[in-house]
């Protein structure tokens, strides 16, 4: 990059930092809230007579939080020999004492989340294990993550992490939740640490050839089949980037190249598109000349990290089945709010009554005879079929050196397929399947415009796709 471009990049990053670096007042408010909460936890532990301690973890503990983020994560570490039932009981008792207006949530084990002086607080019990690989629950490694990074991130590197986080948020790739499947906070910190800063990380990412692997402690003990691998410095068996999809890795690469070529503040602060109206959706459908279908149903009452994997699995099953039957899906999407939607855009909604089915070459005797016999049926001495069960099958006949048949389709209209029991045979997520069993609606062609009231923003993204 020419020196002038490097200077422009530095100016852009400086302007971004003016907007995202927490000021002294914000830092002081956070510190006071953490101190007050920690004191409450310690007092509650004394009352319970439990030998445990409290530690702040996460981005607010490491100084890598972006201004405006209001999250405080406190982990209460119980001795490793504590039994799980006691950990859960004490953890909830502490949480409800410290956050009396909070609510109980459930991950691998229960914890309490709530609000304190304008901050969103998670109070999580864990086992005080010796290292990040000796786990009794998945959250036990988190304090080890904290210790590792606190020893290595100085103020300037923490600022570089904040810039990278804001960049990922701007391009829609930040978050390890199972809806986004992007870059977690811990992963962003490790990548910045590995590359020594935001700019050098972007330059490297622009030239990645996945799969890409980093092992900060050079201690990995297994291989991974992921596009991006960052071996956890506290656990040699874990890939920190396991949830990050190939698409989000590619998204980082695309925007890294674009930003390095043309540094702009706007990349960091992209807004949602304006929602489409029903008529605008219908106009897109008319212009494209495709056949969109939407399966709309009541969204299952589960948390997003359970819902979205099931939606992704379900839409993949629907797409595969429609493709297998010849309807040629072009693209799919899934949305969820009060309702959930499996959206698929087809090249063809309707097909001829018959479909061609090619068989093996005649010279592959065993397979060829099996194919021929399967479609020819039993024949009498004159070579004629017995009965009329195969009256809607044409052939077998020769197509070059291969057998082929033309057979009647089970479904000639994709809507009929999706309204049949065949929908429940495509590999749906379990909660999605249950919701569909309670009832669903098929919206076809321009009728998908009815989704705009609830999903106008999502449809705007669909009909104006970006990297």
UniProtKB/TrEMBL annotation:
EC numbers:
2.7.7.72
Q: Per the record, which residues fall in region Disordered?
A: 374-399
What the entry lists under InterPro entries is as follows: CAA_C (IPR048833), CCA-adding_arc (IPR008229), CCA_tRNA_nucleotrans_2 (IPR042090), NT_2-5OAS_ClassI-CCAase (IPR006116), NT_sf (IPR043519), NuclTrfase_I-like_C (IPR011068), Polymerase_NTP_transf_dom (IPR002934), tRNA_NucTransf2 (IPR015329)
Q: Tell me the cofactors it needs.
A: Mg(2+)
What UniProt keywords apply to this chain's record, in alphabetical order? ATP-binding, Magnesium, Metal-binding, Nucleotide-binding, Nucleotidyltransferase, RNA repair, RNA-binding, Transferase, tRNA processing
Which CDD domains does this chain map to? NT_2-5OAS_ClassI-CCAase (cd05400)
The entry's protein name is: CCA-adding enzyme
Q: Which organism is it from?
A: Halogeometricum luteum
Per the UniProt record, the lineage of the source organism begins with:
Archaea, Methanobacteriati, Methanobacteriota, Stenosarchaea group, Halobacteria
Its gene is cca
């Amino acid at each position: 990059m020419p020196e002038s471009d490097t200077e422009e990049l530095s100016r852009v990053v400086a302007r971004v930092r003016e907007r995202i670096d927490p000021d002294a007042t914000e830092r002081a408010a956070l510190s006071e809230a953490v101190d007050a909460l920690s004191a409450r936890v310690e007092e509650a532990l004394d009352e319970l007579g439990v030998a445990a301690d409290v530690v702040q973890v996460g981005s607010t503990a490491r100084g890598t939080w972006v201004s405006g983020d209001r999250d405080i994560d406190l982990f209460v570490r119980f001795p490793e020999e504590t039994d799980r039932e006691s950990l859960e009981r004490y953890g909830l008792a502490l949480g409800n004492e410290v956050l009396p207006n909070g609510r109980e949530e459930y991950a691998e084990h229960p914890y309490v989340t709530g609000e304190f002086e304008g901050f969103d607080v998670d109070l999580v019990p864990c086992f005080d294990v010796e290292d990040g690989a000796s786990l009794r629950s998945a959250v036990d490694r988190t304090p080890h993550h904290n210790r590792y990074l606190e020893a290595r991130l100085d103020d300037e590197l923490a600022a570089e992490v904040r810039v990278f986080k804001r960049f990922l948020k701007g391009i829609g790739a930040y978050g390890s939740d199972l809806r986004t499947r992007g870059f977690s906070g811990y992963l962003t910190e490790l990548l910045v640490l590995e590359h020594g800063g935001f700019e050098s990380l972007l330059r490297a990412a622009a030239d990645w050839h996945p799969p890409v692997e980093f092992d900060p402690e050079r201690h990995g003990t297994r291989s991974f089949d992921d596009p991006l691998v960052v071996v956890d410095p506290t656990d040699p068996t874990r890939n920190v980037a396991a949830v990050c999809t190939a698409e989000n890795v590619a998204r980082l690469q695309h925007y890294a190249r674009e930003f390095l070529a043309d540094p702009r503040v706007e990349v960091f602060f992209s807004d949602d598109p304006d929602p489409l109206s029903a008529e605008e959706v219908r106009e897109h459908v008319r212009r494209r000349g495709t056949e969109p279908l939407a399966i709309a149903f009541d969204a299952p009452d589960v948390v997003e990290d359970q819902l979205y994997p099931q939606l992704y699995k379900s839409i993949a099953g629907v797409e595969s089945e429609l493709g297998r039957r010849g309807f040629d899906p072009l693209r799919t999407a899934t949305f969820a709010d009060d309702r959930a939607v499996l959206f698929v855009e087809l090249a063809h909604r309707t097909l001829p009554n018959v479909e061609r089915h090619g068989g093996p070459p005649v010279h592959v005797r065993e397979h060829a005879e099996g194919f021929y016999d399967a479609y020819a049926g039993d024949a009498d001495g004159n070579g004629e079929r017995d009965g009329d069960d195969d009256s809607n099958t044409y052939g077998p006949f020769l197509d070059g050196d291969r057998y082929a048949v033309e057979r009647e389709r089970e479904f000639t209209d994709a809507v009929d397929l999706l309204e049949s029991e065949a929908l429940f045979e495509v590999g749906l997520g379990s909660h999605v399947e249950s919701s569909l069993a309670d009832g669903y609606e098929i919206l076809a062609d321009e009728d998908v415009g009815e989704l705009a009231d609830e999903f106008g923003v999502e449809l705007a993204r669909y009909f104006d796709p970006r990297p």
